[in-house]
Amino acid sequence: MHKLAEDLLAQGRVDEAIAVYRKILQHNIGDWRAHLGLGGCFFQKREFKDGIGHYQELTRLAPKEGAPAYLARAELMHERGDAEGFARVWFHHAAHCFFRKGEIQRYEAVCQRVLELGLDTSRLPLERIPLEGLERAERSLTGLWVGDAFGGSFFWKEDLLKRVQSQELSPSPWRWSDDTAMGRSVLICLDRHKEILPDELASLFAEEYLREPVRGYGSMAHSVLHDIGQEAPWQEVAGRVFEGKGSYGNGAAMRVGPVGAYFSGNIEWVLEQARRSAAVTHAHPEGQAGALAVAAAAAWAAEAQTLDGPAMLDWAWSHTPEGETRRNLDLARRFPLYREPEEAAALLGSGKRITSQDTIGFALWCAARHLDSYPEALWATVAGEGDMDTTCAIVGSIVVLCAREGIPEEWLTHAEPL
Fold it and tell me: Rounded to 5, what percent of the chain is helix, strand, coil?
């Protein structure tokens, strides 16, 4: 019904759109998207009192989605003369909302509008807003979640390459997988303890697994998390898989982006925390190396002043321990970014073996290729096929931290809610 209302509004049939949005609210009074739509409709009709009422309800129900409401009120205040200076305040709120959602182009457009109108900019930062560690980690998890769901939506699609070439989205909802489930546990651990405590993280992983074991966990993960849930020590469980060598899968890397984002600015701590987060399930050095590489890349993206893909690859490679994962990443940093993703996947692998060694190089190459655009980075990643939910989760967790073109609204609504 939302699509119907949006189509009616686009055709100028405002009253009909209002009727549809009101019908939505009859079924769900807490639907913030309906309040957003009604606010826009009433502003278009210049019935500002009703419009403001719906915008206020929107910001109450979904504060992070309030940017369009703030922007509309800012323009209204400016149009009315703004004797009290409220327009700047509303522009300020809109800019912060857009930035925190990773919509950098819209954020910069608001800043440009403030400058055009000659408003006071003393409290409106026109450079990148510094985020606290938890906010950065939350953003990384959002990129991971949507990337995971996006990539997973292309599995078993016979016309995958055609869809990628035309950038045709899969039908919603896009179901998220164990990548997101474990990434969420990482964020909860950081929120509670301000660091990774392996015992706590192991418990969180096991609780999440026992709550929803059908999230696409691999056979090794099923065994490990089941045993941890039965109170077996994680050190023992992680160390005995694969004939006592430990796992060198890509699972530690897929969930670690929020760690790099949280501790960005202190690379030694990034690497230590990433190693802790990996060791709970991945005792093999290669499994841990993949996590360190991705965490280093996420930390770089969170601090990036210029979107220099080769510099990001060099940085991640320089902080990856010796081994096959590092050698694969070395190949990736030497492979030109203007080449096609399919070529990169053929050279580097794209996770088909579900190992760190054949996943990390390709994922970081895709991220480096499109640091400025979340959607383009993800389209490039699925073009390489392979373990698409995991490669897209890794790429999404990094690129969302620096891309000027953030996550499209349509993608957020297509992804299964987290």
Answer: 65, 0, 30
What pLDDT band is residue 128 in, cutting at 50, 70 and 90? very low
Determine the average pLDDT of the residues in 301-308. 91
d(CA 27, CA 108): 37
Cis peptide before 213 (omega within 30 of 0): no
Alpha-carbon distance values, 126 to 63, 123, 190, 290, 376 (Å): 22, 9, 30, 36, 25
Q: What is the DSSP letter of 230?
A: T
CA distances from residue 350 to 2, 248, 284, 360 in whole angstroms, order as listed = 37, 15, 20, 8
Instruction: Report helix angle 374-383 to 388-399, nearest 10.
Output: 160
CA atoms within 13 A on the CB side of 67: 20
- pLDDT > 90? residue 21: yes
pLDDT at 84 over 60: no
Q: Give CA–CA dist 317/10, Å, rounded.
A: 48
Task: Count the helices and strands in the chain (H runs, E runs).
Answer: 24, 0
pLDDT bucket at 378, cuts 50 / 70 / 90: very high
Phi and psi, residue 302, nearest 5°? -65, -25
What integer best gives the mean pLDDT of the chain?
Answer: 90
Please tell me the pTM assigned to this model. Answer: 0.72
DSSP H or E stretch at residue 324: helix 324-334
CA dist 3 and 9 (Å) reads 10
Distance of alpha carbon 311 from alpha carbon 2, whole angstroms: 43
What are phi and psi for residue 12, nearest 5 degrees? Answer: 85, 10
Residue 302 is predicted with a pLDDT of: 94
Which residues touch 216 (CB under 8 Å, ≥6 apart)? Answer: 152, 177, 178, 179, 389
